[in-house]
Amino acid sequence: MENSVFRKSINKSIIDEIAQILEEHYIPFKQVDNEKYFDATFVNDPSKIEYQILIDRADFEKAEQIITDYYSKNLEIPEDYYLKEFSDEELKDIIFKKDEWNEFDYEVTKKLLKERGIEISEAEVNQINQERLETLKNNYEKPEDVKNLITFGYIFAIIGCLASFVIGFLLFISYGISLAILKLQKQLPNGERVYYFNESDRRHGKRILIISMVFTIFWTIFFMFKNN
């Protein structure tokens, strides 16, 4: 059994409701309440608290359908609901980025678009979800940060080893960066786990690791002979 995060939210009531729905349909789950491990230094920032539901990856598709059916059948939109103020394009963006919204808002969005004469078929929804998975799999939320990390990796691979003879811990920075680029993973909305960095950037990680090893050996031998 491979548990993955099925839903997460800073709103505990949303997680409790989804947990109840899963329980009623006999889908095993684990509810993670990280408020128990909450750092008191963040006491004035509730957004730091995240509640999660974990289920077996094999149950993802079934659970998704159950949750969708529940909210679509129990949908009552308040008169002053904020999504009614959204433009068509803003609502379409919610459809594309379903993973960033809760089930209620997602179903409300579909209904509002339908009322405006924009109906999205099941086939279109499946295609949109697949495109979103590909986007999350291959793109970065902050590509500039990734570029900077790779740049620093190369810098520390070349000069970090030399500097490490003065400040010891610098030796490990380039190794740490390269291993993070090679090994770090992320979870997609369907429960699949993939490498966080795309294949092109992971090749940079391999080069940084190789360069780090070469320069570590080079500077070690250099200083050994110099001291002799």
Averaged pLDDT, please?
Answer: 84
Q: What's the order of the H and E elements?
A: EHEEHHHHHHEEH
Shape: elongated
> What amount of the residues lies in strands?
5-15%
With helices defined by DSSP (H or I, 4 residues minimum), what is the helix count? Answer: 8
Low-confidence stretches: 37-46
Total strands: the figure is: 5
Which range best describes the helical content: under 10%, 10-25%, 25-40%, 40-55%, 55-70% or over 70%?
55-70%
Give the oligomer, counting copies of the same chain as homo and different chains as hetero: single chain
Q: How are the strands of the largest sheet arranged?
A: 1-3-2
> Major sheet, described briefly?
3 strands, antiparallel
Q: What is the rounded distance between the termini? A: 58 Å
Q: How big is the Rg? A: 24 Å
Look at the helices and sheets and give the structural class.
mainly alpha
Task: Characterize the structure shown.
It contains 8 helices and 5 strands; from the N terminus they run βαββααααααββα. It has 228 residues and is mainly alpha-helical. The strands form 2 sheets. The protein has a 3-stranded antiparallel sheet with strand order 1-3-2, with helices on one face. A two-stranded antiparallel sheet has the order 4-5. A hairpin with a 5-residue loop joins strand 4 and strand 5 (193-195). It is elongated, with a radius of gyration of 24 Å.
Topology:
Blueprint: E1 3-9, H1 12-24, E2 29-33, E3 51-56, H2 60-73, H3 88-96, H4 103-115, H5 122-138, H6 143-163, H7 171-183, E4 185-187, E5 193-195, H8 199-227
Antiparallel strand pairs: 1-3, 2-3, 4-5
